[in-house]
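#dry-run=false #mode=assembly
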Amino acid sequence: MSAATDAFVQNNQVRFLEELKSFLRIPSISTLPEHRPDIDRAANFVADSLRAVGMENVELIPTAKHPLVYADWLHAPGKPAVICYGHYDVQPADPLELWKSPPFEPVIRDGNIYARGSADDKGQMYMHVKAVETLRAVNGTLPVNLKFLVEGEEEVGGASIAEFVAKNPAKLKGDVALVSDTALYAPGMPTLCIGLRGLVYMEVEATGPMRDLHSGLYGGAAPNAVFGLIETLAKTKDGHGVIQVPGIYDDVEPPAPAERASWASLGFEEAAFLKNEVGSTRLTGEPGRGVLERIWARPTLEVHGIAGGFTGAGAKTVIPAKATAKVSIRLVPRQDPDRVIAAFKKFLTENSPEGVRLEVRVLSASPGLMVNPDHPAIQVAARAFSDVFGRPTVFIRSGGSIPIVGDFAKHLGIPTVLMGFGLPDDGLHSPNEKYALENYYKGIQTVAHFFEEYGK
Amino acid sequence: MSAATDAFVQNNQVRFLEELKSFLRIPSISTLPEHRPDIDRAANFVADSLRAVGMENVELIPTAKHPLVYADWLHAPGKPAVICYGHYDVQPADPLELWKSPPFEPVIRDGNIYARGSADDKGQMYMHVKAVETLRAVNGTLPVNLKFLVEGEEEVGGASIAEFVAKNPAKLKGDVALVSDTALYAPGMPTLCIGLRGLVYMEVEATGPMRDLHSGLYGGAAPNAVFGLIETLAKTKDGHGVIQVPGIYDDVEPPAPAERASWASLGFEEAAFLKNEVGSTRLTGEPGRGVLERIWARPTLEVHGIAGGFTGAGAKTVIPAKATAKVSIRLVPRQDPDRVIAAFKKFLTENSPEGVRLEVRVLSASPGLMVNPDHPAIQVAARAFSDVFGRPTVFIRSGGSIPIVGDFAKHLGIPTVLMGFGLPDDGLHSPNEKYALENYYKGIQTVAHFFEEYGK
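#status=ok
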């Protein structure tokens, strides 16, 4: 870790913070059409900031929806190239009344900056820009080649960047991707995420009688679409949440002993997790496996929503003709989404009651993935992280999905360093989203240090 | 059967139909608060029509919810008194897009009048009014004493009329009740219903985590309210529809041999029932019992609707905190609603998964009941029916519930003649509800004839 870069970040904290505030004041909510002008302002803010720190070939790339921002700096011959990814769009801010300060008027309280997008992902993607500025200011050059690719649709499915990556592998040629859109496992604990679950998202529609029937006149003889749907879906898991679809666990590998040991060192507290994060009376999940294994390294099946029949106030005695559920299966590495979909469909067909037909529509499918912790870029990233934070880096997984990581692997053939500086209680997608200022500054230092070390 | 009453009905068909259309144009949907003004319009329509045919002491009786309409005519000393019951409220009309013509714009097609409430029950209760008009027009008087009691809450549990009947046995003193809210077994077949199922209607609410959670970050550890609900409800029946709640069948009596013989004479065709009425690939229900026994003489459990979590377009990966279902159990004579409710609640408590709490709210509860077919009023009604239709009257049961029949038995000590003129394919509670014009006119004749014969 260079004392000079360290000092530069230290001396420019006030300005770095003011710039971030300007970025956060733009309500670039990607899902709301009325914010389209803000999307454009945010994209231009990113482009301008990249130009200002000396990135070249800066361009706004139009897409079917929101523009991508591209920039590069390729004057480090013989050195690796890093693809810096982030997103400038944010989630909607509602319910507004739960915010202590307005979501797009950043405020500092208790060492945190409160604003929509502060942690997810403006505050984190902007660290990459400030790391470039720091290194160029101190050294007059950069230790690695860099390509920035920043999108505005991460919160709405990311279709445009997926298409762009698939179609432009030459333009995006590089050695590793860097994504800062995750969190430290705990405050002060340098953390690299090396595993993500994939996701198969489906709609299941059940059809029973040809129309809603009177339950007095037909109850006892007519099949019920709602009951047929719940009866079938209920069979997909046992009472502990163990998925009953044959073959579903066939390709699931247990975590390696080293990974288990790393998780054991995290100090996970199940009682606090139940009380503070989940807030129910009991946890659920496969017996004999710890919570971290269950949410990071095991496939799970959830019904996200269900609707059918009469659901208004009061009573209506219909035997419903139709019912629909949203169902997903989270996948772990080595599970093939297509095989899982086929097994799920077969299970539903074999287990649906007579008189009720089930139809499955697949809305999206992405595999789970692991980054090899022994990959040189990961090792360098872990060292840089440890150097800045003064503690050994821990390797964790996330139970969520970041589809762009799969796209980088599939189309560019490169691994991704998931080096995030958020905290578990940052309130992503919730009111009062925050980002710790300490992590913002340490993040800039860590990213700069990673570039330095990776260039050696 | 008097040729004069017959001729009067014949000569006034056009006007009787236009009046019914005016009644049907009022969207008196009792379960939707925004239709409260229509409820009042419908109640006043009934009151005005009773005044117009010479009924006396017409009054709108306010209740906690929707008004009752009362009227009487008591100038036949020494003759029995008939309590004429009906309801002016209707079910909601959704899904609107499935109606071929708007639900509250009555249209005649193929000898039927199509509108919400045409058969259930406006078209049928209005026959009683027109029978009074006919008899008074032809004879200048009535052959029996009459008391009308027409409610506006039949489709929402009928709490107000139940309370009113319980509190006013003197005002409602009579010898028999007449209800036209059932159907002929088949076109042209005069039919008296002598058995009804009761109904326990409940809402079941499930609570899992304290808020909707991200299924990537918590899937595998956090309980899911939707899954907990469907998992528990799915256990209430086996794959054939046999209810699994312990004790549920304890008090269920098999139909008497004479009743079975009567059912066997009806010419029920299972294949046609499946194809024309139910319209699914298979029927369901308890093995070893015929369809008529299953829908008329066995308790059944249905889930009428379910809602929870994300049900919009596209994908949202939540673990839902809440879910709700509407559940009912149909009861047969001798089953005690309170015992059934207690058994159901106990079953849910014992079968709900850890981490999910279920709460049951009972919206209504009424027992099943039988009317003695040898009662003089039933015998007279059967004769009147046969005279008008020219065929022997058959005795059947209905799988539906008419709670007021139980209230009349309990508080007034009188039996009820269930003399209905609907048809099995009228589509009660469904889109395109209809009522056959022939049955509307024959119904008026039959009711008038019943009054004449019962007064002899």
